[in-house]
Amino acid sequence: MYRLIDPEQFHGKRVLVVGGGDSAVEAAIQLAEESTAKVSISYRQDSFSRAKARNRERIGELIADERIRPLLSTEVKSIDDKVVHLSTKEGAAGVLKNDVVIVSASGELPAAFLKGVGVGIRKYTGQEKGAVATGADGLPLAGATAKPQRSLSKAEVEARTRRRLSIALFGIGALIMTALFLVGGEYYLLPFEERREMIEHEALKPAGLWGHSVGVIATVFMLATFIYPLRKRVAAFKGGSTIRSWLTFHMFVGVMSPLIVAFHAAFLLNNMLAVWTWVSLAVVVGTGVFGRFLFGFVPAQAGRLLELSEIRGRLKELERRIEPRLAQASNGEAVRALFRRANEPPKTKSFAATVLDLPATTRALRHDIALSRPCFDDEHAFASFRDGLLDIARGRTQEAFYAGLKRLFRVWLVIHVVLACFMVVLITAHIGWALYLGFGPGGGA
Q1: Helix (H, G, I), strand (E, B), or coil: what is residue 9?
Q2: Is this prediction's pTM over 0.90?
Q3: CA gap 437, 264 in Å, rounded
Q4: Tally of domains within the chain
Q5: In this structure, how many other beta carbons lie within 10 angstroms of the beta carbon of residue 57?
Q6: Is residue 24 part of a domain?
Q7: Ranges of the chain whose pLDDT falls below 70
């Protein structure tokens, strides 16, 4: 393939990234950090000089930790089913056992054509670029000033995309709720006896044209919740958007389903099968919301629960990544005090008490980290320090309550799946009964 979309789909596989620019280096970094893939990177030069400094620094750390295997000064000659054939500059041949190849080799810049049409070009190799307007001769235009910009990494771009998706889905949900209330708000607010006197009753009641239509929409939303588990387990559904984006969508349709069902039922409780269907749906959504909250504590990667040794290894890795940022800070002692605070295990022995205290504890830590911003000259260094400290604090909680977290998560997963299956049975029974009443003997059809 020619780009990395979702690192988690390569869990446990041997992946070779081909290329030495930022796209290749960032793909290898993401695979090493966000999946359990065995990552190799092949590049025809002897160093990643084309990549940005921070990308070179990070991939160097991962190579030193043996999480990425560098195959520098090599070229891919051919790709077979389970092996890749490589050659070196000296002509030596080699065979690499491999499952997936990601080619991130950029094309050539059409420099002659761009200059010919008056577009100025400046090359930046391994450094942060500045936005400077230039003429055809490549010289800065009068009044043009350099404006340093920091390019976003793939992980930051994906995080921004997920935030935008969340905002968009929230807006869509708000519009759907508003539209449903505008259509029948006055009807839904009346007692059941008074609704029969309204002209809209025949359409808005659960068995009416509008009520049935809303029920169909609710069913589509409920069935859409199963796209996420299919995306995780069925190869045909993989690719496209990342698993985290699908989880966001899964939560959206899950929360929306019982709300739309309530409008379909016209907020009535006179049908026990419909009531139990709604209750089961609401319980499934409730357990899902709790599970999403719980998932923030559970030590997992690429859908696999981590072992205690892996958690401790990740904590040591985070400490190594934070150390250079501590040295960059102008007030080293204050920043190191924050580091020691985040690195302390929870003070209480009770997981429940820790969870209850966590929002206040995290807010206090975030507040104090924000106050340390003036200690860093570089925004990227501060962001790395902040994210690393928050990850360390979460990791210490996972380490302290490792056994209990794994048991709790497994119990929750069983309950959530069983309730979801029970919900499907009730929904099927409800739809079957409605079709029987409408099309069966003596029905309205």
Answers
A1: helix
A2: no
A3: 17
A4: 2
A5: 12
A6: yes
A7: 106-118, 121-156, 235-240, 270-271, 273-274, 295-296, 300-306, 348-349, 437-445
